[in-house]
Specification:
Elements: H1 2-28, H2 34-43, H3 51-61, H4 68-80, H5 94-129, H6 134-148, H7 151-165, H8 184-194, H9 196-222, H10 225-232, H11 237-259, H12 261-266, H13 269-274, H14 280-289, H15 293-321
């Protein structure tokens, strides 16, 4: 196991190197550059240096006056040393801005992910154990609706019904108008109230795939020979389903659950933008569209590291879920 983990870590480092180089190359080729905007603003100040001198100074500061390969290794050296630079758009250190917005997206993603598991897996089991029943048809239809609904359409529908028509929630934003006058507990409840619709959007639009996946794998397991043998021995149906069948259903589910780790930190760009939630997804989107290389590179590298770590964690969890799986 130790040798396997070491080999996977070394391979992950090589993959991360290739991924970050590709991302850096793409960002350098973007037509938008916030350096030009910064130079124009600085040059407009009274007694400031000319625009061309500001461009040269800023490009030299961020290694943009070098070739893509040389500039990448300059960025890589600074990144390895923990120097992540300052965000061009938000004019604060990258790590500070990242810390300010990541936890809001993490809370949204974690709550939505837990609700997704608590709802989708039991419903998938019910649909499989009651195949071709009314419950199965209703659950399958609900799953297909969830899969088919685009997040932007469903979010707009929720806003129309619950914010505009019923006026139970605000249309957008994270806090209400009287947030500053509230106590700490009231401020917490106010933020939670504003996150109901965004979290509902994330849950409904992602629950269908997991529900269908659980149902399909559960049906395959229930038709296995050892399940028929367990029933022939007189075991109760509940023990057959939840002790024998469900454990083997977990094996493919581990792939989905393990692969969801980056999603907890990557944010939901469409949902956060539609509801004006200042999370990491919205922040990263704003940085990308104006060519904010320092923040975008940090964010994309962070997601790449999480993805590689989740893949390694998934392989290790296979051995935990299924004793027959052993990693040599």
């Amino acid at each position: 196991m130790r040798n396997y983990i070491i080999k996977r870590i070394l391979a992950s480092i090589l993959i991360l190197f290739c991924v970050t180089f590709i991302i850096y190359t793409i960002l350098r080729c973007l037509p938008a550059s916030y350096v030009e905007t910064m130079a124009m603003q600085l040059a407009a100040s009274p007694g400031a240096k000319p625009y061309e001198e500001w461009i040269s100074q800023l490009n030299a500061s961020y290694g943009l006056d070098k070739s893509i390969i040389a500039g990448y290794f300059t960025w890589l050296g600074d990144f390895a040393a923990g120097n992540f630079g300052d965000s061009w758009k938000f004019t604060v250190p990258v790590i500070q801005k990242f810390h300010d917005v990541i936890w809001l997206s993490f809370v949204m993603g974690a709550v939505a992910f837990i609700l997704q598991l608590l709802i989708a897996i039991p419903l998938g089991i019910i649909a499989a154990t009651r195949q071709y029943s009314r419950s199965d048809y209703l659950i399958t239809a609900g799953a297909l609706i969830g899969i088919s609904l685009p997040p932007f359409f469903f979010a707009t529908l929720l806003k129309l019904i619950f914010a505009v028509k019923l006026q139970w929630f605000d249309v957008s934003g994270l806090v209400g108008r009287t947030f500053a006058q509230m106590s700490s507990w009231e401020q917490f409840l106010d933020k939670a109230h504003h996150l109901v619709l965004p979290i509902a959007t994330l849950v409904i639009t992602s629950i269908g795939a997991l529900m269908r996946y659980t149902r399909t794998n559960m049906l395959e397991v229930l038709n296995a020979d050892y399940i028929r043998t367990a029933r022939a021995k007189g075991l109760s149906e509940q023990k057959v389903i939840y002790k024998h069948a469900f454990r083997n259903t977990l094996i493919p589910l581990v792939t989905i659950i393990g692969g969801s780790l980056p999603g907890l930190f990557s944010g939901a760009q469409i949902t956060e933008t539609l509801f004006s939630i200042p999370g990491i997804g919205w922040t990263a989107y704003q940085s990308m569209i104006i060519g904010d290389i320092p923040f975008t590179m940090f964010y994309m590298t962070f997601i790449a590291v999480l993805t590689l770590a989740s893949n390694l964690l998934t392989d290790i969890l296979y051995a935990v879920v299924d004793p027959r799986v052993r990693i040599a």
